[in-house]
Amino acid sequence: MRNKLGRARRINYIQDAMILSRTSRIALDPLSDALIAFGTGPAQATRLEAAGDWSLHFGSRDRLKFIGLVRGTCCLLFPNQEPAWLKEGDVLLIGRTDYVVASDPHLKPADGSELYAQGEKDTLRLGGDDVLLIGSSVGLNDAGAGFVLDALPPFYRIAGDRSEAGSISRLLEIVDCEARLERPGSRLAAMRLAELLLIEGVRVFIAGEGALCVGWIGALGDRQVGEALTLIHADPAGQWTVPRLAAEVGMSRSGFSERFSRKVGRPPLDYLRRWRMLLARQLLARNDISVEQVARRVGYASQSAFGFAYKRTFGSSPMQ
């Protein structure tokens, strides 16, 4: 029942945000829009203290995860990759992949998720505190997990000595302080800080290698394509055309279409349709809104046109 209520609240938020964007022109940026629409709840903050020999395996899940090494050294292992040794201040943004974190890459790993489930307050202690890792993760629902995670690499490493990592280091220190002092409101503060850590990690990706990757998240770093994505998310029901979007961002139609497709990985109107269908899928989960109403909310004048687009995207009709 609690999960159903949570889902209903998120869907209501999407509805309110769409109405707000059409009336006041105030809208969420695309990254916030996607994480709010498809996140399954507040970010979870975790803490790992370890010493001696230890190794933990975490399976692939539909979640976006951040790991920051506050103290010591450790090794990260990803499928088909050489072991990556982390030093203090290094952080990792992890998408849809399983991984092992360990003191030695040759150790047999235990099930990390199971050990955390047996612990208390999202903290795991393994023999000491020579190594301190702070993590944060946000789950993504079935409708939007692919939309978010496919736009990011399986993992992205941010060296602690990079200038962009300064804000992340400060946040890690605050999270560590909240966990150690356990002051009133610490748990809620840690959850909010966990969200900030994830966002900062994605921002550093966008500012760095995002321009070299294909996907809408990396494309947010491109001024004109990012502006077009923001326009689409600000008014998903708008009557957008390639010429109109191109004019809005000050480009020619052909130049804009080529650049958008190259950066995002799909043409502008295909991206618009995909985003509309994902929003529609969320709205259809409600019991108090008709297919016709959903069609209008996401920019379709007729229910039949909406139904065709929906079936083309998901392979089933809106009624199903």
Termini separation: 22 Å
Please identify which CATH superfamily of the largest domain we are dealing with.
Jelly Rolls
What's the domain count?
Answer: 2
Please give the share of residues in helix.
40-55%
How many DSSP H or I helices?
13
Mean pLDDT score, rounded? 86
Task: Please give the number of β-strands.
Answer: 11
C-alpha geometry: elongated
Element pattern in H and E: HHEEEEEEEEHEEHEHHHHHHHHH
Largest sheet: 6 strands, mixed
CATH hierarchy class name of the largest domain? Mainly Beta
* CATH architecture annotation of the largest domain: Sandwich
Based on secondary structure, the structural category is alpha+beta
Radius of gyration: 21 Å
Which regions contain 5 or more consecutive residues with pLDDT less than 50?
Answer: 1-26
CATH topology of the largest domain: Jelly Rolls
Question: In percent terms, what proportion of residues is strand?
Answer: 15-25%
Strand order of the largest sheet: 9-1-10-3-6-11
Q: Can I get a quick summary?
A:
By secondary structure, the chain is of the alpha+beta class.
Describe the protein in words.
The chain is an alpha+beta fold. The chain is 48% helix and 17% strand. Strands 9-1-10-3-6-11 form a 6-stranded mixed β-sheet, covered by helices on one side. It is elongated, with a radius of gyration of 21 Å. The N terminus is likely disordered.
Which tags fit this structure?
Arc Repressor Mutant, subunit A, elongated, 320 residues, Jelly Rolls, 48% helix, six-stranded mixed β-sheet, 2 domains, disordered N terminus, alpha+beta, 17% strand, five-stranded mixed β-sheet
